[in-house]
Amino acid sequence: xxxxxxxxxxxxKGEIDESxxxxxxxxxxxxxxxxxxxxxxxxxxxxxxxxxxxxxxxxELFRVETTHRAANCxxxxxxxxxxxxxxxxxxxxxxxxxxxxxxxxxxxMCDGRDGKKATKILRRQHYRSVSNV
Length: 133
Prior knowledge:
mainly alpha
């Protein structure tokens, strides 16, 4: 899985098809927290490789919030999602960026690691947008 995402990220000719994305999405939905966490990290790695895949990647990352898991696993995975979304944010279209900001705002209202991570990413994004004016 890690190798596949690295290959896609370096595939400048677009020779690797969307089936790799499907493998990574399946990993995110896996019952194993470790496999799901790797899947999330690898989806984020594709941020530069395939802008056409952004909507599908975001849909899967957003789905982690509603997937039934033990509370401690959910917090860890949502923290990973917040990191992934933070790395994707600068590369997204305005529509996708708005959806990510809404999601991160919802996470920021939570207690725990995922909320703190989302708040940090939102502050950094706000700082970037203010400094670019």
